[in-house]
Design a protein that fits this description.
- Two copies of one chain form a homodimer.
- The first copy, chain A, is of the alpha/beta class and about 290 residues long.
- Chain A folds into two domains: about 170 residues, Rossmann fold; about 110 residues, Orthogonal Bundle (6-phosphogluconate dehydrogenase C-terminal fold), CATH 1.10.3660.10.
- In chain A, about 50% of the residues lie in helices and about 15% in strands.
- In chain A, helix 4 runs parallel beside helix 5 and helix 7 packs across helix 11.
- The relative contact order of chain A is 0.11.
- The interface between A and B is large, with 92 and 92 residues.
């Protein structure tokens, strides 16, 4: 289906996309591009890509589909590097965790929203990075959100949707801003809480002891604090308004909870915890998974 | 070693203690006590106890060791129910997640701190409850903190320590207040963050959508929000000062993080996330586990 696929950023996300499409028999040649020659050589050794280059323009030459899987902060630069080299019919899609900033970068780099750019976000990942971490099943039974614009060509959209479905994912469509608000709540806030908790504990006086007695959920809770600091810095900066608002809202909730505890209001505490337990149990019953 | 063991509260904690000691050949007869006859009958069927009663005084009659594994809010009532029925040489220990409140309850019920009461806290558990959830390996490679007082008999302490070690646990000793502060940071705060997050998301307008797109760590993060609301209500009330202080401190951290994001300070964000990742990776390398 895709004679030539260019992956810009052959890490967990980009590498897994290439592997999944290869396994599905959906791609011919895969060209990898990134900044780390060592990672690209590994990608070649692993058969994730057929050849590689550190030059984005070279990578996209003649490509039918281009997948940008780079940190959000690098998106604008990559778009400017490739804009003159893309085939007219080439479809470009991405995997960025924030859509508003990517769309803004595309408009800035191209002077408009090209009909063949399909903004996307696979809601999947592990806390590991690099092509070594990639695997073809990453997207199976996961959700992918595409955020087409008014300008987006329906056939380009349909193709990208089909490709993600071939990776085993379930695709939904959403408005850009709505995506960013939802993800601020479901993903960005939890990650920031995990980072914040680990950081706060690491800076406490008794931090050796604290980490020695850290069990009872601490490991699970903070697994996501082992995620890439670069990726999360970029997500915070790219989704600053929504993320900032969620953080402040949650901080207020915590202060209210502190007051409830201070007041000794056992009834209210039980309500909050019961409601949370019920919501989570329902989430699991609906097949919710990581 | 223990001819007759009485377990008050035959749930995950109490049931697992009985199972572990039985497997280690350390106990003769096990008597179970609780409020739910159905749970006690199940405990009998499963062989976790040899007989049961809903009367705590009856349960402890002739017992060499008594293990209190009841919600913190029930501790005082149980102590008052058993104080007249305990053998003079009987050793009493508990599994409560907060030690200050338990010690206060003991002093109030007995008019003093009896030398044979050994306050304890096994740092172990799953989000499940009841004797069905119990298993003998729960405490293997886990930490147990004992908080002896000046009045505590060294031989009673040594016995309780040895029993926990026979369950496979590693035992440490700590001052009561210090225990409560450390646990506020390592356990109580993470649980409250998980409860708070799930509750906040459940109350948002778009909660259906939010839970549909909740992946990327959400499940792990919120696993502990499926814990017992009664247990956690009691922990908050029992450890109110330390927990309240941690919540307020963390709320300030979140507001600072929101400001950092608002200011677009990518450098600082990267520092926070990198420090957290390093701390967590170090925690894992030291063999930290859930």
């Amino acid at each position: 289906m895709i004679a030539r696929l260019a992956i810009i950023g052959v890490g967990l996300i980009g590498g897994s996309f290439a592997r999944a499409l290869r396994a599905a028999g959906a791609v011919g040649e895969v060209i990898g591009c990134g900044r780390s020659v060592a990672n690209l050589e590994r990608a070649l050794d692993l058969g994730v890509v057929d050849r590689f280059t550190t030059d984005p323009a070279e990578a996209v030459a003649g490509a039918d589909l281009v997948f940008l899987a780079v940190p959000l902060g690098s998106t604008r630069g990559i778009l400017e590097a490739v804009r003159g080299a893309l085939d007219e019919r080439a479809i470009v899609t991405d995997g960025g965790s924030v859509k508003g900033s990517v769309v803004a970068d595309v408009r800035a780099a191209f002077g408009r929203m090209p009909p063949n750019f399909v903004p996307g976000h696979p809601i999947a990942g592990t806390e590991h990075s690099g092509v070594e971490a990639s695997f073809p099943e990453l997207y199976r039974h996961r959700r992918v959100i595409l955020t087409p614009l008014a300008e987006t060509d329906p056939q380009a959209l349909a193709l990208v949707q089909r490709l993600w479905e071939m990776c085993g994912a379930e695709v939904s469509l959403m408005e850009v801003d709505h995506h960013d608000e939802i993800l601020a709540a479901t993903s960005h806030l939890p990650h920031l809480l995990a980072f914040g908790l680990v950081d706060a504990l690491a800076r406490m006086r008794e931090n050796d002891e604290i980490f020695r007695y850290a069990a009872g959920g601490f490991r699970d809770f903070t697994r996501i604090a082992s995620s890439s600091p670069v990726m999360w810095r970029d997500i915070c900066l790219a989704n600053a308004p929504a993320v900032g608002a969620m953080l402040q809202r949650f901080a207020s909730e915590l202060n209210e909870l502190a007051d409830t505890i201070h007041d000794g209001d056992g009834e209210r505490l039980w309500e909050i915890f019961s409601r949370a337990k019920a919501a989570r149990d329902r989430f699991l019953a609906d097949g919710g998974r990581d």
